[in-house]
Amino acid sequence: xxxxxxPRRRLEPDERREQIxxxxxxxxGERPYAAVSTTEIAAEAGVARGLVNHYFGTKRELYxxxxxxxxxxxSSAATALPRGxxxxxxxxxVDWFLDSVSxxxxxxxxxxxxxxxxxxxxVEAILAEADEVAVDHVLAAVGLDGTAAGHExxxxxxxxxxxxxxxxxxxxxxxxxxxRDELRLLLTQSLVSLVRDTFPHLPK
Length: 204
Known about the structure:
The protein is mainly alpha-helical and 204 residues long. It has helices spanning 13-30, 38-45, 49-56, 59-71, 76-79, 86-101, 105-112, 121-141, 151-175, 180-198. α1 crosses α2 and α8 packs across α9.
């Protein structure tokens, strides 16, 4: 399929950088890392290839920026959740996640699976840090902190829940075997059950 290339026009440096980044995010979601070149990204953005290198360096360095962008969780994500029951807070957290992922769901799935990039310690470090930030967000969403007994076990269980979130999101965005509503139900019900039915059985 022939892609539509952006027309060249004069932009401020920050705008141009964001334009290039948006094109890279889209292309890395459409094809594996190895199949995307900085020349193609530049063409899609309507800029010279040298400008991509100027703003981001190598393709690998640009990809690391894409990974960070896809996994960024703003500090306001947990504090903005509504008050209410456990289900209300979990549902709002799941909705926030789905709304954040939806615009570039295939790219999100690609970066969390490091598809095509191989074993890269920098990518792995970003993913590991993102997992811990996600755990913190979930704990805040369900009203828990790190002072109670069993804290490390809860973190481990939430990381395991996170792995299920990644797999289930792939079923929705890549395979099309789950609808968004079905994914929403799965993620909500699983986390509510984990907090309500499993956490109370951890050692006191």
